[in-house]
Amino acid sequence: MSGVLVTGGTGKTGKTLVQVLRNAGVPAREASRNPTAGEPDAIRFDWSDPTTFGPALDGMDRVFLLPPVESVDPLPLVEPFLRQAQRAGVRRLVMLGSAIVLPSAPSAVELAAQVQAQPGGVVLRASGFMQNFLRPHPLAERIHRLGEIRTAAGDGKLGWVDARDIAASAAALLADLGVDARSDYLITGPHGMSYPQAAQIITARTGRQVRVERITEEEQAAAYRASGMPTEFAAALAAVERGIKEGREDQVSTAVLELTGRPPRAFAEFVSDHAYEWTQ
């Protein structure tokens, strides 16, 4: 048997990726801490439990790797899995990384290098997820309850990308081992967008009035902690907004078009597709 092991298989990108692969006739195994009940090829997978690695990899020759979320130091957890994947004969390994390197998270860079050193290793460095504007993300919860975006990013722009386009890009690399691939792709939407621009688009497309409240980095970190994020991760995530404000994250690429043959979705299209989220 051969197929694709999709770690984080119930998440924003993984769930869509599993469906895209199966629609293309590619066997895909959904792996997550809480596998979907009744799912015919779902398996428990937990980064903190290495005994789950072997059964998840069994029979799979390709892997979509979603590193541990809300961790500033993922390498110690992922490194044993990479060794096991290589022993298992995995021929292509596509990791979902980030275009933004969190402050105080140097191991993320080393992790990307280790993935790229694997047979068929590819890193997709995705920009901010448009799905952050959907619940249960804290950003979306505040919009839904209060019609408000609180941000320390000012008018800085980010190349927001739809998780569906990330999944389609990953599927293009995983469905066919014959596809020639680079070891690194920057995955973004079609243009940079600031939080004030996002608020304007949501308001125009849905009729829901959304305003922007500009806050400090420290206030943002406190808000993240209040939402349940670990303290260190909350501080690192809030510090990212400083980089956005200073223009360091305003990057746009053509990788989605290159990999899938179609341009990435614009935020206005994303909002129209999910208008019910803001009008309920």
UniProtKB/TrEMBL annotation:
Signal peptide coordinates: none
Record SUPFAM superfamilies: NAD(P)-binding Rossmann-fold domains
Entry-linked InterPro entries: Ergot_Alk_Oxidoreductase (IPR051604), NAD(P)-bd_dom (IPR016040), NAD(P)-bd_dom_sf (IPR036291)
Span of domain NAD(P)-binding: 8-176
Domain of life: Bacteria
Pfam families, per database record: NAD_binding_10
UniProt protein name: NAD(P)H-binding protein
Organism name: Streptomyces carpaticus
